[in-house]
Structure formats: structure tokens, C-alpha cells
Design a protein that fits this description.
With about 110 residues, the chain is mainly α. The protein contains four helices and no strands.
């Protein structure tokens, strides 16, 4: 014969639904507000746009440098490029030339 030793209370019926609601609310909060959630997606997209703009700027600088290197690499050095580099790096000038020194402003973004 089976006997009930313990009477089932109303509180024990709500333990599983309360735990389930707690776990679902925890994950629901993090889906929206988490590091990779829906709310932070806007910040990530802004960061991507900023990095793309920086990449385009660097690609433009690289193209300019590649063009200068190509002028020197071809096996025949252009006289204008050689003259420019010699004057700039070796501080060479003819006695009858006037040299004006200017400071080059560097952009810091």
C-alpha cells in the first residue's frame, strides 16, 4: 500500500517555471544589450565605417608611394626625381640658386 509521506505544496509547482523564466530573461537581456547584441550592432557598424574610411585613406597614400617607387625602379631614373631626392636628402644646391625652406605640416587624425 502506497502512502503519501509529504503533501505537495503550491510552491513546488512554481519552481521550474520560475527558473525557466529567469534563464530566459537572462539570455533575452544579453541578446539585446550584450557585447554582440542588437543594441551594440550600431556601434559595431560605426566602427566598421570608420575603419573603412581609414583603409581608403591608406590605400590612396600607398598608391602615391607606389607611383614614386615605380619611377625609380624602372631601370632608368628620371632626372627630375633624382634631382629632387638629391636636393632633399643631401641638401645640395647650385651656388646661383635660391633655396627656401618650409616646414611640412603633418596631419594627425
Amino acid at each position: 500500500m502506497w502512502t503519501k509521506q509529504k503533501r505537495r505544496t503550491n510552491r513546488s509547482r512554481f519552481i521550474l517555471p520560475v527558473l525557466t523564466a529567469g534563464v530566459l530573461s537572462y539570455f533575452g537581456y544579453h541578446i539585446y544589450h550584450g557585447e554582440y547584441g542588437l543594441y551594440s550592432r550600431v556601434a559595431v557598424e560605426e566602427h566598421i565605417a570608420l575603419l573603412n574610411a581609414e583603409r581608403e585613406k591608406l590605400e590612396a597614400q600607398r598608391a602615391i608611394l607606389e607611383k614614386k617607387v615605380m619611377l625609380l625602379r624602372d631601370g632608368t631614373i628620371e632626372k627630375d626625381m633624382l634631382d629632387e631626392y638629391a636636393r632633399k636628402n643631401l641638401n645640395l644646391s647650385s651656388p646661383n640658386e635660391l633655396t627656401i625652406m618650409t616646414l611640412k605640416k603633418v596631419k594627425t587624425d
